[in-house]
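Folds abound. A case:
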Amino acid sequence: MNKTSLEKKIINVLKNITDLNSDVDIVKSGTLYDIGIQKNLITVILDIKNKQPSDYEEIKKLCNSNLLKIDRTKNINIVFTSENLKKDSNTSKPQLRKIELEGIKNIIVIASGKGGVGKSTITNNLAISMSKSNLKVGILDADIYGPSQHKMLGISHLKPSKNKDGKINTIVKSGIKCMSIGLLIDEDQPIIWRGPMVQTALTQLLKDVDWGELDVLLVDMPPGTGDAQLTISQKVNISGAIIVSTPQEIALIDAKKGLNMFKKVEVPIIGIIENMSFYLCPHCNTKQEIFDSGGAQLVANELKVPFLGKIPLDIDIRIKSDEGKPISTLSDIKISKYFEEITQKTINFLDKNKLD
């Protein structure tokens, strides 16, 4: 069945569902906003306009049951989008409604101004390090176009199930609860979604996943300062942001942009990490600063934010990430001490701000 014929079948079954307080179906009324089709996933976006999501729960169930009649082998994801904004009482600035994530004490976003600086590797190892400090930790892979956490945790072969309430269960590895779009679609399948689909997908990954009780949810952000960053900042209460950069000047320029963006949306800055800070030769123990060094510390001083530490350029980190075995799980590896130092500074930040 090709995509075009499947789309037609989806539209036809959705025509059987009458819209809220209406005599017409959700297709004719315009509530059907968009359809996304991946190998193992059908995503239907409903534009609920100025209504509450709770008003559309029955229609959501009907969509799900009707779509299962087409193909029971695919996962069904029904997401809502709208321009449902509320006005702040003291200003005319519109503010999106926040999602209340019961059971999650702290949400920390790990971001970077540009790609290729090792943000996902830092997130992965920081999660393991925090877990070793007796914290209940989860990872949300918010990089919709380039998810990697499922690979780095070694769970890419697993598929999440749903619980009795219809929520998606996380996949647990090394004590870390993880959810990634990479677990829901074929690994080689590109995601070709417009901005609104990415925003609604992120919202669903937050509120339609059974995260359980967590001390910290680490959100692995995509690079840059675009829709995903704004969506997360507006949708949930963030405890703090960590910025990852290399010492290179070009990376530091973008790191500044990331820091300033979070400041503008009033997200507390936990600090900046300098990744690939230096290379320590395993044979002669000579330290080489391949990408320069100390730049992130200077940016931290300039913008008056904490400097959390340096992570060296080490081949073991690359190998273990590719194997799905985070370096921080191996207590005898010398590199894990760098993550432990950053973990402690992050915990101190949470304790100081009484966000736990």
Notes: Residues 84-96 have pLDDT under 50 and may be disordered. The longest strand covers residues 269-280.
